[in-house]
Fold:
Amino acid sequence: KACCHSPSNHSARTAAKRCRLVAQASALSERSMEIHMRVQSGFSLIELMVAVAIIAILAGIAAPSFLNMVAQNRLSSQTNDLSGAVQFARSEAIKRNQTITLCRTASATATDCADGAEWVHWIVVNGAGTVLRRGSVSGAGSTVFVSSTLADARLSFRGSGVSDVAPGEDALRVCAKADSNNSSTLTIGVAGRTNLVKSAGGC
Structure:
């Protein structure tokens, strides 16, 4: 700006051009400093609060669906495990021509059957007490609840493959606590055939 008022030996046109160039350079310098200050300052408090609110809303929408998906996966996984254990016990009974039992146990290392309401651990055992397979319910006590209507919480197959269940009554039930359509009932037939029915209801 000072150049516009200072004396000059050049023509008025040259002086005016030089003055415009100085003014443009000054404006660019101020703009550059403004941008630099904005970059250094980062997000404002209001911008951060808006971002956090949006994240919270999205999380609130996604969380129930995610929990239901996890519950359904665990429900399917545990139902498949127990169905596989039933079929394994029957096939071993036929193969060995002896009684094989699937039952609830009191701990992950127990070798004896134990009656109880909730199945957290289970074993497949022969008549001599040798454990052929064992398993545990993932999420037991928190997200998954497994129970049965089996007498003494055990299911036995004779060498012929015939079970000792009461037809149409004895079953294993797997329940996922976080989902509305949360129950799988595995009914066991006399011949060892299983029938799976899904339903809604509390655990």
